[in-house]
Write a structure and sequence with these properties.
3-stranded antiparallel beta sheet; alpha/beta; Aspartate Aminotransferase, domain 2; 14 helices; globular; 7-stranded mixed beta sheet; Aspartate Aminotransferase, domain 1; binds pyridoxal-5'-phosphate
């Protein structure tokens, strides 16, 4: 049967990420050290797991209200206020979602009409472009550069704005570069957003993972709260990837529209995970601190090691990725990643997987033990000498 002819064009237009290709290769090589995976290597803190177990013991096994249990929405509102100075009304402006992933999807599906353009600073998280395409929109990559520390430059952003531009999809701290944007830089972006009447989806899932710099929530930039959908989740900060829990916060009128998409596609986020998340927000600050300190040691180790090997490297200030340039090796990102895997059994992701402006770079995730990183560094050193 010709199944292809039944598949919708917008789905056919979406390609699998090259990360998947590398995952498959790595899975066939159990002895390889993987620096591919953007997922914390810690297990979820025990008190958070206990809260989920208690929810089960208490019989909390049914659907919750569509936007999530009110207790959790209150905790999220409280958390966003105390950590980032953001104000949202729990009853009307917060929706608990199935990971930040679902929040990105429903935000885009709510906002995008066929042909609307969504500006995506790149290199970027691999899901953005496909999600825009699946929502019927047109992804418009906006390059960011090593020389600028991979922050989004207002003049470059403005060059890509057209009358069809509707949404700007921001994501700082950034996956894959580890770049963060400070308040002043975000204010400059805010001016362009206002001038061209854009709406902003800001994916701040790595907000808790910054090193020596404060995270600035985009919605706290003057004039931006009313134009912003703030997205975050529990996967990275609390090491809860498997729980599938995130949220979005937006002005009530927008959140109400998004709630329709959420309601009719997923009903609600997992119930016991929501109870676990209440505990995470109430009593999880010390866990974040402990994991962040560990990531920071690894970050410094990798940054200094890669530089001392002669790889040009931008110092990441957020998330758990480092994005060295491999241009001076003469190899493309794909060749570098494939040969490093085949010859030295170290898996990294070619920067080109995150958009064209990632060509000439590779992404290393330091969400793995220091022992693994030390072995990986040794092997990368050998590889660089041999090529
Ligand atoms: C920038 C970014 N946003 C969203 C996600 C997905 O997060 P979640 O597990 O909450 O769906 C990831 C996961 O890697 C990510 O890197």
């Amino acid at each position: 049967m010709d199944y292809k002819k039944y598949v919708a064009d917008r789905v056919k237009d979406v390609k699998f990420s090259t990360i998947r290709y590398f995952f498959n290769l790595v899975n066939q090589m159990p002895e390889a050290i993987s620096l591919c995976i953007g997922e914390p290597d810690f297990v979820t803190p025990i008190h958070i797991c206990e809260a989920a177990k208690k929810a089960l013991d208490d019989g909390k096994t049914s659907y919750t209200p569509n936007p999530g249990i009110l207790e959790l929405r209150y905790e999220i509102a409280h958390y966003l206020k105390r950590r980032f100075g953001l104000s949202y009304v729990p009853e009307k402006e917060i929706i608990v979602t199935i990971g930040a992933s679902e929040a990105i999807d429903i935000a885009l599906r709510t906002l995008v009409n066929p042909g609307d353009e969504v500006l995506i600073p790149e290199p970027s998280f691999v899901a953005y472009r496909p999600c825009v395409t699946l929502a019927g929109g047109k992804p418009v990559p906006v390059p960011t550069y090593f020389e600028d520390g991979f922050v989004l430059r207002p003049d470059i952003l403005e060059r890509f704005v057209t009358p069809k531009s509707k949404v700007l999809l921001l994501s700082y701290p950034n996956n894959p570069t580890g770049a963060v944007m400070n308040r002043k830089q975000l204010e400059e972006i805010g001016k362009i957003v206002e001038k061209h009447d854009l709406i902003v989806i800001t994916d701040e899932i790595y907000a808790e993972l910054t090193y020596g710099v404060e995270h600035t929530a985009f919605a706290t930039i003057p004039g931006m709260w009313e134009r912003t959908v703030t997205i975050s989740g529990f996967s990275k900060a609390y090491s809860m990837t498997g729980w599938r829990l995130g949220y979005l916060a937006a002005p009530a009128e927008l959140a109400e529209e998004m709630l329709k998409v959420h309601q009719y596609s997923v009903t609600c986020a997992p119930t016991m995970a929501q109870y676990a998340a209440v505990e995470a927000l109430r009593n999880g600050d010390a866990d974040i601190e402990r994991m962040r300190e560990e990531y920071n040691k690894r970050r410094i180790y990798l940054y200094t090691s890669l530089k001392s090997m002669g790889l040009e490297c931008f110092e990441p200030k957020g998330a758990f990725y480092i994005f060295p340039s491999i241009k001076n090796t003469g190899l493309s990102s794909e060749e570098f990643a494939e040969r490093l895997l085949m010859e030295k059994k170290v898996a990294v992701v070619p920067g080109s997987a995150f958009g064209e402006s990632g060509q000439g770079f590779v992404r290393l995730a330091y969400a793995t033990s220091m022992a693994n990183l030390e072995k990986a560094v040794e092997r990368i050193g050998e590889f660089l000498k041999e090529i």
